[in-house]
Specification:
Order of helices and strands: HHHHHHEHEEHHHHEHHH
CATH architecture: Orthogonal Bundle
Structural class: mainly alpha
Radius of gyration: 20 Å
Helix content: over 70%
Number of helices: 14
CATH topology: ABC transporter involved in vitamin B12 uptake, BtuC
């Protein structure tokens, strides 16, 4: 017993950087809890509201973890989510909620396959492919909706995809936990997850070991767009409408959540649990800064500074 404690302490001291997201989350939560008690930070409704605001980011960030771990990036997720809200709302208006769900998933698959084809077959870097797709998806959403909100008049859809609650717990929390659990198992316990990490860790070595790296990259880009479309379905359900503006700018929060959680921008390393905590941390920071009464410009500065500090601390120095 006496030898185990020093060993545990030495292990933590040597590897504390990989736990920085959890330490940072706890520290920020305590600071907000102590300074914003009178403003209702610890109020259960406020904490559940953080979950509601964070769920869509977390869903997209889980898939982004696979993309980054494979050595690629997807900048189109926010725009794809916005496009999906519009296609879902329009399909529900014409043929009902089942058609809406099918339209949302089809939107994600179509965009993801196009991104994957351009990246793996044509050879355009995913940064440029998805940057262009960001504009295309937003433009299509504006065009087909005529820049107007498309209402969703299906209570069942709205309840299941964002607006409902079970025993007082938002349905969005269950979706976030479901995606997180599946993502964690796939990344850590399956051959596909191991091939994703191997591809990002060293593409040439992975290729020599028999891994079809192009197929892996194609699949993670399809996965990312499909998850973004599902997040769009959650946006549409929660707000009971499809709007091209929904999801705008989310790509930065999604990437930040994954990197904060310990996923490397250079590939080969990813953690789903850390990504979920990173998404919750960003949502908590946003919520706390609003309760502090900071102006929007000040919120942007403070949020950016906190994220930079957390990422800087998590990096190993050579």
């Amino acid at each position: 017993m006496t030898t185990a404690n020093p060993s545990l302490a030495r292990s933590f001291h040597a590897n504390w950087r990989q736990y920085i997201i959890y330490i940072g989350f706890a520290v920020i939560f305590v600071v907000f809890a102590l300074t914003l008690t009178d403003k209702g930070f610890l109020n259960p409704n406020n904490l559940l509201n953080i979950v509601r605001q964070t769920a869509m980011i977390a869903v997209m960030a889980v898939a982004m973890t696979f993309v980054l771990s494979a050595g690629e990036i997807d900048l189109s997720v926010g725009a794809v989510a916005g496009l999906a809200t519009v296609t879902v709302a329009m399909a529900i208006a014409v043929a009902g909620p089942v058609a809406g769900v099918a339209a949302g998933i089809a939107t994600g698959l179509a965009v993801g396959m196009f991104n994957g084809w351009l990246t793996t077959r044509i050879g355009i870097p995913s940064f440029l492919t998805t940057l262009a797709m960001m504009g295309i998806a937003k433009g299509v959403a504006m065009w087909v909706s005529n820049t107007a909100a498309v209402p969703i008049l299906s209570p069942g859809y709205s309840w299941l995809f964002g607006g409902g609650a079970l025993i007082g717990v938002p349905v969005l929390l269950f979706w976030m936990l479901l995606f997180g659990a599946i993502g964690h198992v796939v990344l850590r316990r399956t051959g596909f997850g191991r091939r994703v990490l191997a591809t990002g860790g060293g593409e040439m070595a992975a290729r020599y070991s028999g891994i079809d790296t192009k197929a892996i990259k194609f699949r993670v880009l399809v996965l990312s767009s499909t998850a973004a479309a599902f997040a769009g379905m959650l946006y549409a359900g929660r707000l009971q409408s499809g709007r091209f503006q929904l999801g705008e700018g989310d790509e930065l929060s999604v990437i930040a959540a994954a990197v904060l959680g310990g996923t490397s921008l250079f590939g080969g390393k990813g953690t789903i649990i850390g990504t979920i905590v990173g998404a919750l941390m960003i949502g908590m920071i946003n919520n706390g800064l609003i309760l502090m009464g900071l102006e929007f410009s000040q919120q942007l500065i403070a949020r950016g500074a906190i994220i930079i500090l957390a990422v800087a601390l998590s990096q190993k120095r050579s």
